[in-house]
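Extended Data, panel c. Modelled sequence:
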Amino acid sequence: MFVDFSPVSLVHILLLAAALVLLAPSAVFLSECFAALLPPSQKLKRSAYSPKIAVLVPAHNEAMGIQPVLESLSAQVQMPNRLVVIADNCTDQTAQIARSTGVTVIERQDTERRGKGYALDYGLKFLAADPPDVVIVVDADCEVQPGTLDRIAESALLTGRPTQAVYLMELPAHPKPKDAVSALAFLVKNWVRPQGLHRLGLPGILTGTGMAFPWSVIQSVSLASGNIVEDMQLSMDLAIAGYPTIFCPETRVIGLLPQQDQAAKSQRTRWEHGHLQTMRAQVPPLLKAAIQQKRFDLLAIALDLSIPPLSLLIMLWLAVTFAAVMAGFLTQFWLPTGLMVLEGAMLLAAILVAWVRFGRADLPASTLLAVPFYVLWKIPLYVAFLVKPQTKWVRTERDRIDAVKIDAAQSESDLA
């Protein structure tokens, strides 16, 4: 039997393979966004027992904005619960300012082992002398909506699994168009997609702040690492160990997008390089564990993790679509083009649904028009990943703020 391996046939095979590879994340992305529209499942029953909580706040040179964050948290963390700040490798007044708010402060100095994972490990060792029922992690640059800590703590206690709050980004005081697109991408990743998985009864992924863990669970894994996206790695480790993450939609944690271009670039580089590295390293083990343990939840996590950052997914779609159209005109082989049109419709439908249902109130329609420019802005970031990926934790420079605004009056039905 003769097999044609002419250059034209190889081009056809490569284009068809590329189209099929992109079909999987596009379909999963569409499914998650549309599943977010499903009615909520039965809410977790409330417990008569109030868990003993310890809130850990890792902080590295956060003197500029940590005081209002701690004052807000202190109002929500009442005795016998504890609020502990880990002043990690600080060279500013973070520890002194934190102590002035009346919270417990522990200091760590280790210039060789840097990163949030090491700080949290230090905090857990401090708590071990009098362990709580539930440990909650909140970043030092976030505001937590009242009621959120109680909800995620109760969920973690009742289910025995880590619980993630809704973590969103607020626009800076003078936003640029790319800031609005970044906020939309963040909303899709941290609210819409996790809510879709939650509506389907599937686990999600930890997003770095607003995370609650039963004490026995957080003690079962190692946090002491310099992983630049330690939350994603922790999600994988806990899921494989039998503790997949629960998403809690009736909550809200708010961060602030950096105003400075360099700070925004640094933040996105750390997040997205870390995402891609974790995707490359963890999807195969998750698939293997899903087969060995016969667990559909691990398969769902692997499929969710296989979706690259939204801007990269759009960038890849544009590149393959352009190549497929060119090949179609030159060779009349249109199957890859047809698949790419289908995938483009999937991505567009998912983004529109996410914006209309979840983002329209805060993000104008012009946000969607700025998406192409945002994708162009991200090209150097992905080129850098191919040339020299970021592997070390680097703190994002903060803007000077008094506090992050939160609409605490928003009803639970709105959040759900």
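The first strand starts at residue 53 and ends at 59. This feature is highlighted in the accompanying rendering.
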